[in-house]
Amino acid sequence: QVQLVESGGGLVQAGGSLRLSCAASGIILRVNAMGWYRQAAGKERELVAVISSGGSTYYADSMKGRFTISRDNAKNTLYLQMNGLKPEDTAMYYCAANDRYWGQGTQVTVSS
């Protein structure tokens, strides 16, 4: 049974930083494409960042230079380091494996 459990969300002031974690069980992260997505209230879910099994990364334009996706193979955990947070980054953040398995999400709220 695959489980993805996100953590690390919270309330932060604009300009601040957060690091999200996604702990995986039942699946080996390093051999799967892993992604972070977010969904703001009243909006559609959007891709934030992806890391391939080979380690290549992709970021949505608005996250480039501010967010960093990474994984710790030993801990089987995916991370999203978010710096320079803006109020428009407020959303529920989800991790996903191969766009097939999803976590329950962690809320990020950025105050102005």
How are the secondary structure elements laid out?
Layout: E1 3-7, E2 10-13, E3 18-25, E4 34-39, E5 46-51, E6 57-59, E7 67-72, E8 77-82, E9 91-97, E10 101-102, E11 106-111
Parallel strand pairs: 2-11
Antiparallel strand pairs: 1-3, 3-8, 4-5, 4-9, 5-6, 7-8, 9-10, 9-11
Brief sketch in words of this structure:
This protein is mainly beta and 112 residues long. It has strands spanning 3-7, 10-13, 18-25, 34-39, 46-51, 57-59, 67-72, 77-82, 91-97, 101-102, 106-111.
Labels describing this entry:
0% helix; globular; 4-stranded antiparallel sheet; mainly beta; 112 residues; 7-stranded mixed sheet
Structure explained in plain terms:
- Helices cover 0% and strands 53% of the residues.
- The protein is built from no helices and eleven strands.
- Strands 2, 4, 5, 6, 9, 10 and 11 form a seven-stranded mixed β-sheet that branches. A four-stranded antiparallel β-sheet has the order 1-3-8-7, with no helix packed on it.
- Strand 5 and strand 6 form a beta hairpin.
Net shape: globular
Order of helices and strands: EEEEEEEEEEE
- Based on DSSP secondary structure assignment, what is the total number of beta strands? 11
Sketch the major β-sheet: 7 strands, mixed
